[in-house]
Amino acid sequence: MINERFPHSSIQPLGFDGALIETLMPRFLPGALRRAVAKRAYGFFLQTEDGSDVGNRVQPGTPPVLDYDEARLPGAALEHRRFTRAFQTALLKAGLVSFTKRIGLNGTAHVCGSLICGRSPADFYVVDGSVLPRSSRVNPSLTIYAWGLKVADALVRRFQLERPALSQVGTEAAYVA
Fold first, then answer.
1. Most exposed of 15, 23, 44, 61 (fewest Cβ within 10 Å)?
2. pTM for this prediction
3. Could you say which DSSP state residue 104 is in?
């Protein structure tokens, strides 16, 4: 579900089960009340794409570290707060009470915009979501797959031009690998 007032936000109706919803409810509520409400609740996942900032990236190391600070993107944080409030207001107008729990970076499934590429195509090739500036309201998996296929095709063509005698051997493997 999307709303034109919030161009980088969307709602996914996930239908969390009662046990998960209970863990997301405020801890100050008595356990029996949390369980009773959770049995009758429905879960939604509200997300706002944050865009890119050169400071938000994977830092090299062992293991690599995601250096991310949402303060670098105040517009995204503001849109998400307004989006969440608008959804809660719409639910309240429909006679439904809601609560939210911020998942934050732990809920990130598709990190985009976290890689600075080389200065020319000869430097290196990257075929994951880190080269996308944002995932544009939707799961970027198909875009990432298409990007990977496009880069693989370009690499095969380059390999065939640079090594024509070897290009006939193992071409199929290049597509599978």
1. 61
2. 0.65
3. G
